[in-house]
Design goal:
The chain is of the alpha+beta class and 114 residues long. It has a single domain, classed as Alpha-Beta Plaits (2-Layer Sandwich), CATH 3.30.70.120. Helix content is 24%, strand content 31%. A four-stranded antiparallel sheet has the order 2-3-1-4, with helices on one face. Strands 5-6 form a two-stranded antiparallel sheet. The chain is globular, with a radius of gyration of 16 Å.
Length: 114
Amino acid sequence: MRLVIATLLAGQVEAVRHALADVHVTRLSIADAHGYPMAGPMGASTGAVAQLAVMEIAVNDDFLERTVATIAGVMNLAGRGQDTSGGTTATGLYVLPISETVQIYRAVRGPEAI
């Protein structure tokens, strides 16, 4: 079991969500976040706060590769994190191990709870 965390531009959320649905990954959480752009060309940064989203998806190991590949593919197609001010916003994709899951409303534990 793994937890996939993607930080992406707010404008990428719907494209990623639809692409994940196409590979049968539909249970996920999305939250708003704020990011600070890295320096753009010539080291200049506007200091403006970029609107980001954080997507969290718990998957069993058999869904891990398709989930990561789908998110990475959409993020690359969407301009590799370009923000509107000319700088680049740090976007990322992280995979963490999950040692235990519990689905509270059914009292189910382990991979079946995902």
